[in-house]
Amino acid sequence: MIVVDNAAVVFGRSTPLETWALHKVDLTIPEGQFVTVIGSNGAGKSTLLNVLSGDAPLARGRVEMDGIDVTRWPTTRRAGLVARVFQDPMAGTCEGLSIEENLALAATRGTRRSLGRSVGRARRADFAERLRELGLGLETRLTDRMGLLSGGQRQAVSLLMATLAGMKILLLDEHVAALDPKTAEFVLGLTNRIVSENRLTTLMVTHSMRHALDCGDRTVMLHEGRVVFDVGGEERRGLDVPDLLRMFSRVRGEQLDNDSLLLA
Amino acid sequence: MSQVAFLGAIEVGLVYALVALGVFLSFRILSFPDLTVDGSFPLGAAVAATAIVAGWDPYLATALAMAAGAVAGMVTAFLNIRFRILHLLASILTMIALFSVNLRIMGRPNTALLQEETVLTPFLGGSLSAHEVKPLFLAAVVVLVAILVARFLASEMGLAMRATGANPRMARAQGIGTGLQVYAGMALSNALVGLAGALFAQTNGFADVTSGVGTIIIGLAAVILGETLMRGRSVLIMVAACIVGSIVYRIAVQFALEIDALGLRASDMNLVTALLVTVALVLPGLGNPVSALLRRNGR
After folding, report:
1. Region A119-138: what's the mean pLDDT?
2. Percent of chain B, pLDDT > 90?
3. Segment B244-281, tens digit of pLDDT
4. Which residues of chain B lie closer than 8 angstroms to A104, CB-CB?
5. Residue A11 bridge partners (DSSP)
6. Is residue A5 exposed (0-12), middle (13-18) or buried (19+ Cβ within 10 Å)?
7. In CATH, what number does B3-112+124-294 get?
8. Is the minimum CB–CB distance between B292 and chain A shorter than 8 Å?
9. E strands, A86-243, where?
10. Contacts of B126 (CB under 8 A, 6+ apart)
11. Is the CB of B175 less than 8 angstroms away from the CB of A84?
């Protein structure tokens, strides 16, 4: 369960360039819900994820996870609760380290790291088993450098890494945006499988209205740092992309440039 | 090359292998170009020599020199992390400050250790001569240190340190306190350099405040040479490459100095090293290990 209460984020405070990335966001996400987040560029989608991961400090408001007030917790402290997959396939992994070393980093996320071997025999066998489930043939390449993998493979491994250590919340920051359509579909399918298998509370930021409606069970649209609409359940099931666009222009009372949202 | 000169080259190469390991930890593992070593090398020498002259046990004095090096590394890390001073500049500030500190510690520009007890004393007086004992003793120390460093880098903690240097944002997302890792890595790196300084002073019989000039370039040259000679990604190979690089570099230097036709003097060494590293830096091509060494993944 995530509670974001009256959250505001400001960049460059008291300077001529002061920008409110989030104005006033109230969002309550029950345990196990999969929320997709859409909005044009600069709407505050990534800032919202940064607020949850601890990368963006709040100017006002509070964040609660599982009933604990984590507003003042830095990223490293939240790592036991939150796992994140970045948009850039390079960002979520260390390309200089091997696949098994990357997995070992994720397996010890949020725990005290010991002087014991990072990749022992038991752990290696476990990693191979989990990689086999991805169906990419990576189980035979445990000692290969991460940098040798394709973008799609890296995102798939990033998703797997997110699930290796205990966590409650999965943050997906446009994690298929840098992939070709076919690979994107594969990674999205994998996402849905992992989320439902682990019953994770998930926020997925996406630029694709299609993905926003096809995945998850609730859709939130941000605009200029505010939640402009929030649909779930029955109402959402009947929606299609044109409905979403219509709803958006109605809420904002202005004409939206469709293409910029669809193609961005 | 005479046997004495050859063993001498190996001896110096082994001392600087510890420097190379330190440089490897800062430059390679942490992606932190650290020039503190030019100060922490003579710091180790000064601390060990002063403590030995004051009657300390030489092993304790050497441990104290390592601790002093670790503190120097942490000062650089502090300047960088706490005040956001550029890493290169932060390390130069510490290096400059250490020159004065070293003079204060010794009270004079150099300290002789010729009649003093050193870490080598227990091994002298046997059937082996001093110029044979020194490289053997140093080899034992270097191998021990290298195994410990390699084992550390393969551990969960060491992996966290490698991730900090390779991708700090990802490291934080995995719950790694990157600031703490930089402190620890810089302390470890400069402790090794302090150890090198302490052993240098004891094997050569003196500590000199100017002995640190160019340490960073020699360490870097050893790391680069090692990487060229031994390619491989396992930590054991990377660590071994530092040692091999340092020894091969010293033998090559010794060889060059002995060829009269080249007309080189011992005092030309820093110039030659600088030229070699420069050439390695500007060599074109993707396979250039140096450009990879100095390429930084956004911090």
Report:
1. 92
2. 74
3. 999 999 998 888 888 877 788 878 888 888 887 788 77
4. 156, 159
5. A19
6. middle
7. 1.10.3470
8. no
9. 169-173, 201-205, 218-223, 226-232
10. B133
11. no
Contact B46, B200 (CB under 8 A): no
In the predicted structure, residue A264 carries a pLDDT above the cut 50: no
A93 within 8 A of A161, measured Cβ to Cβ: yes
In angstroms, the CA A244 to CA A174 distance is 19
**What whole-number distance in Å separates Cα of residue B269 and Cα of residue B206?**
20
Q: Would you put residue A207 in left (φ > 0), alpha (ψ -120 to 50) or beta?
A: alpha
Among A99, A113, A173, the strongest candidate for a mutation testing the B interface, having the largest count of B CBs within 10 A, is A113
Give percent of chain B above pLDDT 70: 94
Cβ distance A19 to A47 under 8 Å? no
Determine the 3-state secondary structure of A52 from DSSP.
Answer: helix
pLDDT (average), residues A160-171:
88
**Dist. CA B211–CA B208, nearest whole Å:** 5
CB contact, 8 Å: B155 with chain A?
A: yes
Say whether pLDDT at B74 is over 50: yes
Residue A10 DSSP code: E
Which of A112-121, A233-242, B67-76 is the least confident region? Answer: A233-242
Checking if the pLDDT of A4 tops 50, the result is: yes
Is 50 exceeded by the pLDDT of residue B286? Answer: no
Q: Looking at chain B, which residue has its C-alpha nearest residue A164?
A: B174
Alpha carbons within 13 A on the beta-carbon side of B250: 20
Its CATH class, for the domain covering A2-94+150-263, is: alpha beta
Structure confidence at residue B284 (pLDDT): 54
Which residues is B206 bridged to in the sheet?
B112
Q: B231 at the A interface (CB within 8 A)? A: no
User: Residue A17: CB partners within 8 Å, gap ≥ 6?
Assistant: A11
Average pLDDT over residues B241-246: 96
CB contacts of A93 in chain B (<8 Å) are 167, 170
Tokens of A221: 């649209």
- Shortest CA distance from A50: residue in chain B: B173
Q: For all residues of chain B together, what is the average pLDDT?
A: 90
Q: Residue B289 has what pLDDT?
A: 53
Over 60: is that where the pLDDT of A257 sits? no
Q: Phi/psi at B29 (nearest 5 deg)?
A: -75, -45
What ranges do the domains of chain A cover? 2-94+150-263
**B45, B198 contact by CB (below 8 A):** yes
Structure tokens at B123: 């091994």
Mutation site for B-interface testing, chosen from A103, A105, A145 by largest number of B Cβ within 10 Å = A105
Tell me the Ramachandran region of residue A135: left when phi exceeds 0, alpha when psi lies from -120 to 50, beta otherwise: left
pTM listed for this prediction: 0.88
- Decide if A161 contacts A146 (C-beta within 8 A): no
Q: In sequence order, what are the beta bridge partners of A35? A: A203, A218
- The confidence score (pLDDT) of residue B298 equals 34
Three-class secondary structure of residue A84 per DSSP: strand
Check if A104 contacts B (Cβ < 8 Å): yes
Residue B270 identity (one-letter amino acid)? N
pLDDT at B208: 95
